[in-house]
Specification:
The protein is α/β, with parallel strands linked by helices. The strands form eight sheets. The chain has a seven-stranded antiparallel sheet with strand order 5-4-1-2-3-6-7, with helices on both faces. Strands 17-18-19-20-21-22 form a six-stranded parallel sheet. Helix 26 (about 905-920) packs across helix 27. Mean pLDDT is about 85; it is low at about 300-305 and about 700-765.
Length: about 1100
């Protein structure tokens, strides 16, 4: 097969054909240039389609389909073209009365299609399309040919971010002298397919699978035709912007340099023995492997030349092959590779990277209730690390650690600190800590300690000494009502504990229920509508005292039958202490991992036997635990399990297992945490990424219906008596938000007898319910917000954005007046609050220090009291740390902190997080670099606190003189965040998703010289951005001086700091509406 370009070529090839055989005809077809090639694989029965697949080629027509790059689902086809192709495929199958597989190759240009060929057989693309879609085309074709019934067009449920790409594998290195260019005759010797979230990710993974090493710096281009030079120009511009160095032969280098794309000139291969300077020698650059990728696009790619016909282009291509330098000879492939390179995708193993013929199911990240770490409160113990590793291998992404240990338990502040140190930066999954009540440690479990743990544990076992049920009554009574209480009590203590919880109107969770009497008691309690939930150790469901005679930790056969009969009232499954106790009683090797990895295989076996369903597992290992223990959402976290595949059980540690040497029918195949694969097919890729969820919570009810009055039960602030005209909600339903930091933060309710006028009638008002975290509250500190509060505020901010863009203003705060009290200069914050108030229909009174009685010596207290007589809320900025709290002490109206010196700036932090979420889609999983003055920057101090609600990696980059305070660094690490502290931006730039730049604040320095020494430490310009991710965004709270070059402003994709201000308007509108409406 050859392509004829002239009459001489035609004569030459026909002469060759007649020399081969005069008896067989020569087929001549028209060659259409610049046409798209599209491939269809289909299965028909009696001429009627039962399945078809449409794939597109990356290369234009003219490259043999065996050498072409195939994409499915097609990404760049016009829907009309696809419709015509599908119609033609059906007509061809019907005309030929096909029964079985067939393959058609189409040409498409300007929505006009033509058939290249139709093959009544399965093509090499059949396995590829079957694996991508999950529908086995070969199986369907075999069945229709054998007359076995098939279901036409089974449902294909492909996610939107899922693409398969098949690339060819060449062996030119083994074919001496062969010219490595693509043509109409097949040259590849194999093929590789990979999956990705887009075609670029799938393509680059497939290339890597063929053995190609991706370039890190130096790329050589040699492009023959002017048309292809123009086509490659945008790709070259992107490569340079991404930090790659381009080299080019004479014509190519001249073209790119003329178009302002830096490209270093290399001399072509010399004729004869002419000497070349090394720095300009293309030969030397190829031979010394300076070039890491060679893109060679011949001007006349008409036919494969024999080895004896040698051109400079051919010789350089052969050199690239012989020196093992990746070579691309097709312009379409070069473009998609360039785009994939500049995107710098992480290429982590994800859930889209494999297919299996076994039945797989996806579960959300599972919760390991009452995970047992024997030495949890022993200094230097690694038990929490081991439990978390086992949890990940077992499909659990969160471990609720039991406070009970073999030798020491969490019972006071000292033991809690030890456990926190053991877990911080060491847990491989999310975790929470609890505290055990002993009856005599009531003074140890104070308000601050309660805020740092997930639950109160009432132990009734041999590991912790409990005085009596009466002894723990007062501890139950004073425990915060919004935090769980857990007990392992058994009869006869269980009845007393349930009665105690009922008397104090507290919900209680009973863990590791084992006997018939206990489960019947719990059933009776539930029937009487008591707040009781329970879990059962999985070992108690599958092993009994007959299985292991002489053991006491397992139920009897009668008790086990009662547990199975009572699944309807069992809220959760757990691992608990039973596996560890069983191994101890049997004298076997024990480990903190005991029982964790066996849990899902045992439950999946019960699914196969029909005793359980996947919904049972999901509800009892995720849904119910999340509800009972207020576990925050785990985005992009899931567990893939394989069912109906007998597999020998493999334990990841040396500890004993009752499943050892046995076959199980289901296993954990993959675990993803925050979109990252941490366990795959028996191999663990975990690292210490776990976050402490002890103080985090999540409510599944809408905030309009929440009753959070009991939160903060230990707070000493009096509940207000607020008169609200015509309001269906009483002030008593509002909570007290409590500070848990060493510095006292005032977040008290407003004073009583403050009249609040009825809200105006407005259609939009019905969508802004009174939020207990904001309504008539002082907004002083980031520490008063919970994760759900932030989400609620952002939802309202989005609605504000829609309303403003649609209507301009909203009369939500008509009749209300806001005071902006600024003791420091401000442009953005003051204007933002003023605009937000006016957009909401309210009025603003401006007060500045230079034009008010402050110049006469008036105190903050007097100024605040004065303005409260005229306005409904006060926004204050002051240079002194704690000034907002001082103002709140004397203000009968809400005070909003707009910055207190180097302290906090909560509203700026809110808008910063909202900006990240709006620009990148999510905050979770991002790497955020804070750059500049981190010592005096109140914006970054507040921002870090909010970011700890998410799964993020934090980089603190600053001169040593302006380093982030140790208290903030330590708090971030205690929260489980990955923290890097350095002085060089280049150390962390490549992995950064958000670059948050701050101004070096001259006003915070005592001398001009000291400020000058650090003023220009960092400057963000195009040269810096070229080394960063292409989708990295640059933020700045503004004003700026010289830390961001003005040229960056024109990079609309990255420079978001002006959009950041716009986002701030909507956030402050939402905040003012929540506080005042």
């Amino acid at each position: 097969m050859n392509v004829v370009s002239s009459a001489d070529d035609l004569h030459n090839y026909l002469t060759q054909a007649t020399a081969v055989s005069r008896d067989h005809p020569v087929v001549i077809t028209k060659y259409i240039e610049e046409a798209k090639e599209i491939e269809v694989d289909a299965v028909a029965k009696d001429g009627k389609l039962v399945m078809h697949y449409v794939s597109e080629h990356i290369e234009n027509a003219g490259v043999h389909s065996g050498d072409a790059t195939l994409v499915l689902p097609p990404q760049d086809l016009d829907p009309e073209t696809v419709r015509r192709i599908e119609d033609a495929t059906a007509k061809i199958g019907e005309a030929l009365n096909v029964t079985g597989p067939y393959n058609i190759q189409f040409l498409a240009k300007n929505n006009q299609i033509k058939v290249i060929e139709c093959n009544l057989r399965a093509a090499r693309s059949f396995p590829f399309v079957s694996k991508v879609t999950g529908v086995d085309a070969i199986e369907m074709a075999t069945k229709v040919m054998l007359g076995i019934p098939v279901d036409p067009y089974p449902v294909i449920d492909l996610p939107p971010d899922y693409v398969g790409v098949k690339v060819p594998q060449f062996s030119f290195s083994r074919l001496s002298g062969a010219d490595p260019v693509l043509g109409v005759e097949m040259a590849s010797t194999g093929e590789v397919a990979c999956f990705g979230k887009n075609k670029y990710e799938a393509y680059i993974k497939a290339l890597l699978s063929t053995g190609i090493v991706l370039p890190k710096q130096n790329i050589l281009l040699s492009i023959g035709s002017f048309k292809e030079k123009l086509e490659m120009l945008p790709a070259a511009q992107k490569l340079v912007a991404a930090g790659f160095t381009l080299f080019g032969t004479s014509g190519t280098a001249d073209f790119f340099n003329e178009h302002n794309v830096p490209c270093k000139y290399l001399e072509a291969l010399p004729e004869g023995d002419t000497d070349q300077k090394t720095e300009y020698s293309l030969t030397q650059h190829l031979a010394s492997n300076v070039i890491e990728l060679y893109i060679n696009l011949p001007s006349k790619n008409r036919y494969r030349r024999p080895a004896s016909y040698s051109t400079k282009g051919y010789r350089t291509r052969r050199m690239a092959i012989d020196f093992d330098i990746p070579l691309i000879t097709n312009v379409k492939c070069a473009k998609i590779l360039a785009e994939a390179l500049v995107r710098r995708m992480p290429l982590d193993v994800s859930e889209v990277d494999s297919k299996t013929s076994h039945t797989t199911y996806f579960l959300p990240g599972l919760i390991n209730i009452c995970a047992f770490a024997p030495n949890i409160a022993i200094p230097g113990s690694t038990d929490i690390t081991e439990v978390s590793k086992a949890s990940v291998c077992g499909g659990f992404t969160t471990a609720l650690l039991s406070p009970i240990g073999l030798h020491n338990s969490i019972i006071d502040d000292q033991t809690l600190t030890i456990a926190q140190k053991n877990a911080g930066g060491a847990s491989h999954c999310n975790y929470s800590l609890s505290v055990a009540a002993t009856g005599d440690n009531i003074k140890d479990i104070n308000e601050e300690m309660a805020a740092e743990v997930k639950a109160l544990y009432l132990p009734f076992n041999r590991l912790v000494t409990v005085l009596s049920v009466t002894g723990i009554s007062s501890q139950v009574q004073q425990w915060p009502a919004d935090k769980p209480i857990v007990t392992d009590a058994k009869s006869p203590h269980l009845a007393s504990v349930l009665l105690l919880a009922s008397l104090h109107s507290r919900k209680i969770h009973v863990t590791s229920v084992r006997t018939k009497e206990d489960i019947q008691l719990i059933r009776l309690s539930k029937e009487r509508k008591l707040g009781v939930t329970c879990d059962v150790s999985v070992y108690s469901l599958f092993f009994d005292q007959l299985s292991f005679p002489g053991t006491t930790c397992l139920p009897s056969r009668e008790d086990q039958d009662a547990l199975w009969a009572s699944l309807d009232i069992i809220d959760a499954f757990s691992v608990g202490l039973v596996p560890y106790q069983l191994a101890l009683e049997l004298g076997q090797d024990v480990s903190p991992r005991s029982g964790v990895e066996e849990t899902l295989p045992l439950l999946l076996g019960a699914v196969k036997d029909g005793r359980l369903t996947f919904d049972d597992i999901k509800s009892r290992l995720h849904d119910n635990p999340v509800r009972i223990f207020n576990i925050p959402d785990q985005p992009h976290t899931k567990v893939e399990v394989v069912a109906n595949r007998p597999t020998p059980f493999r334990h990841k540690s040396k500890c004993w297992s009752p499943l050892q040497g046995k076959s199980v029918v289901g296993t954990v195949n993959r675990v993803l945490i925050q979109g990252r694969t941490v366990f795959l097919d028996g191999a663990s890729f975990t690292s210490a990424i776990g976050r402490d969820l002890s103080s985090a919570s999540f409510s599944i009810t809408k905030h309009a219906d929440r009753d959070r009055a009991s939160r903060g039960s230990f707070a000493s602030f009096p509940k207000p008596s607020v008169e609200v005209s015509q309001s269906p909600l009483s002030a008593s339903s509002l909570p007290v938000v409590r500070s848990t930091t060493e510095t006292t933060t005032i977040v008290a309710q407003l004073p009583p007898n403050r009249y609040v006028p009825a809200p105006p009638s407005n259609a939009f008002l019905s969508t802004v319910p009174r939020h207990p975290a904001f309504y008539r509250k002082h907004i002083l500190s980031v520490k008063q917000f919970k994760h759900q509060d932030i989400h609620d505020l952002f939802d309202l901010a989005q609605e504000m954005r829609v309303q403003v863009e649609r209507n301009g203003t909203i009369d939500l705060l008509k009749g209300k007046v806001l005071c902006t009290l600024f003791y420091e200069p401000s442009t953005r914050t003051s204007s933002s609050f003023e605009t937000a108030m006016k957009r909401l229909g309210g009025e603003v009174v401006q007060v500045t220090a230079s034009t008010s009685s402050v110049v006469k010596g008036e105190t903050i207290a007097d100024t605040v009291r004065t303005m409260a007589c005229y306005t409904d809320a006060i926004v204050i900025r002051h240079p002194a740390v704690g000034s907002a709290q001082t103002a709140a002490k004397f203000s009968p109206v809400p005070v909003l902190n707009a910055g207190d010196g180097v302290g906090e700036h909560p509203t700026q932090a809110l808008l910063d997080v909202y900006t990240i979420r709006s620009e990148l889609g999510t905050v979770n999983g991002r790497t955020i670099t804070l750059l500049g003055d981190l010592k005096n920057g109140r914006t970054v101090h507040s921002l870090v606190t909010f970011l700890l609600f998410y799964s993020v990696r934090l980089n603190f980059v600053s001169p040593s003189l302006l380093a982030m305070p140790d208290s903030i660094i330590n708090a971030a690490r205690r929260a489980g965040a990955s923290v890097t502290v350095c002085e060089s931006l280049d150390d962390v730039l490549a992995d950064t998703d958000v670059l948050y730049v701050t101004r070096v604040q001259k006003e915070r320095f005592t001398s001009e010289a000291e400020w000058q020494s650090v003023a220009s430490s960092y400057v963000i310009n195009h040269a810096v951005l070229a080394r960063a991710k292409p989708d990295m965004i640059v933020m700045h709270p503004l004003p700026r001086v010289n830390e961001i070059d003005a040229e960056v402003d024109f990079d609309e994709r990255r420079a978001v700091y002006f959009r950041q201000m716009r986002y701030g308007l909507f956030v402050r509108m939402a905040l003012l509406a929540s506080v005042l409406a």
